[in-house]
Amino acid sequence: MFALVDCNNFYASCERLFRPELNGKPVVVLSNNDGCVIARSNEAKAIGIPMGAPAYQYDALFRKHSVSVFSANFPLYGDLSNRVMQILSEYSPEIEIYSIDELFLKLVGFDFFDLQNYGTSMREKVFTWTGIPISVGIAPSKALSKLANRIAKKYPEKTAGVYIIDSEEKIIKALKWLKIEDVWGIGSQLSKKLKAINVFSAYDFTLTNDAWIKKNMGIVGIRLKRDLQGLPTLDLESLGAKKNIATTRTFDRNTNDLNYLEERVSTFAVACAEKLRKQQSCCNSLLVFIHTNGHRQDLAQYHQHILVQLPFPTNSSIELSQFATAALKKIFQAEYQYKKAGVMVQDITPEYQKQLSVFNNSNELHAPLMKAFDKINNIFGQQKIRLGSQDRRIWKMKQERLSPRYTTKLSDIIIVKV
DNA sequence: TCTGGGGTCCTAGGACCC
DNA sequence: TCTGGGGTCCTAGGACCC
Questions:
Q1: pLDDT value at position A175?
Q2: CATH number for domain A2-164, candidates 2.70.50.60, 3.40.50.720, 2.130.10.10, 3.30.70.270
Q3: Which helix or strand (DSSP H or E) is residue A240 part of?
């Protein structure tokens, strides 16, 4: 069996942890730049605030219902996620951390266990130790465990947050209940195609013939069908090093100032370099892009990117910053107003297997220098040491309702007076 | 005025090899 | 009139996920 554990309204739950007076009240969390809604408490969902809603369009509704609005506080969510994952990883030796708030567990040798109790104990322990509410779905395959989890979330009273699919009848009942567009792995494009051939539920999908699925969805569709039928086909995925790393941001304003963009791109490259070093990798190519604001029909549009093959693999902040800003200058055009930029590093290889070239290699002095960089920044805080090309101001985002970093910043820790 | 960020896998087609 | 067969690697783009 597989279990899929999912934190309920994760970011909203994190914000409420340190503001217990908000329990039972509507809470939303906004994306970077306070742009759109990326998490909602149940109360906020009930008011009719959709996922992805642009914040400025919902200001009136927020005020009307006294919705508590937070800017995204990723250091807080990341830290709480680690705590939840650590607790849950004790429930099985085989796990896959699927996202910041989701975890698959493979339950082998649990034939004589009461899985309902097992799931309930996960919920109780995570809630007692962290304060985060979770839902648990257990079923014979990954796709079905996602479905079981959905049922647990949808019917919290009936299921007490734990639902188990462990018989053919339950599989069919659940599949008939699940709308095709809600199936894990079927998005808007495929559900449109499927509805056109009268496939409206997950159950209908399991009856669709393989030839159609193969032609329209590829091998992925066939695997999904088997998995939904209860024949475990998708297995846990190993959590190796990332194959692509990106740092991209939307700005709080439009700009055609090349100096500003250079500074941003340099900082993004440094951030990518840090992520590379953290997983002990180097990259062999780098992509820089700049975009105008696609929502503004009144402004001329320009979307451009450039992919640079590096002369040597590197994870040096200095080298990546230089390559990235040089690339930026090649695509920058002063007549446009830019709203977004980003750096992505690709073709990632392990740090310890660098392919050296005869003439042109990464500066060997950078490795110890970067080690010192990382060590100092880890101790004294982000960007205490930075390149001259980077601005002193770290946040160039609109974050008007940022909560404290209660668990990751010494000065933000709550002081209790007794 | 204001609309996020970061990933994965698969496929088709082209270039190239013997 | 008529011109093989079998591979690999790379890239861009499309679908999906949270």
A1: 98
A2: 3.30.70.270
A3: none
pLDDT of residue A396: 79
Q: Does the nearest atom of strand C lie within 7 Å of A209's Cβ?
A: no
Nucleotides of B under 7 A from a protein CB: 1-11
User: What nucleotide is nearest A54 when CA is compared to C1'?
Assistant: B3
- CA of A242, C1' of C9: distance in angstroms: 21
Closest nucleotide C1' to the C-alpha of A348: B7
Q: Would you list the domain boundaries of chain A?
A: 2-164, 168-228, 245-380
Widest Cα–Cα separation across chain A: 69
Question: If you measure CA to C1', which residue is closest to nucleotide C10?
Answer: A347
Q: What is the pLDDT of residue A141?
A: 97
In the predicted structure, residue A355 carries a pLDDT above the cut 70: no
In this predicted structure, what is the pLDDT of residue A383? Answer: 83
Nucleotide nearest to A193 (CA to C1'): C15
Residue A198 is classified by DSSP as: T
Q: What is the pLDDT of residue A358?
A: 66
**Does pLDDT of A381 surpass 90?**
no
The gap from C-alpha A211 to its chain's centroid, in whole angstroms, comes to 34
CA of A418 to C1' of B10 (A): 59
Yes or no: is domain A245-380 CATH 2.60.120.430?
no
- Tell me the mean pLDDT in the region A176-200: 96
* Phi (first) and psi of residue A8, to 5 degrees: -75, 125
Average pLDDT over residues A228-245: 92
For A318-331, what is the mean pLDDT? Answer: 95
A138: closest CA among A116, A108, A112? A116
Distance from CA(A208) to C1'(B16), angstroms, rounded: 40
In this prediction the pTM is 0.93
Q: Which nucleotide is nearest to A294 (CA to C1')?
A: B3
Q: Which residue in A109, A84, A112, A111 sits closest to A99, CA to CA?
A: A84
Average pLDDT over residues A96-124: 96
Do A168-228 and A245-380 share a fold? no
Strands (E), A133-244: 134-139, 162-164
Look-up of token digits 């947050």: A161
* pLDDT of res. A394: 73
| Superfamily (CATH H level) for A168-228 | 5' to 3' exonuclease, C-terminal subdomain (1.10.150.20)
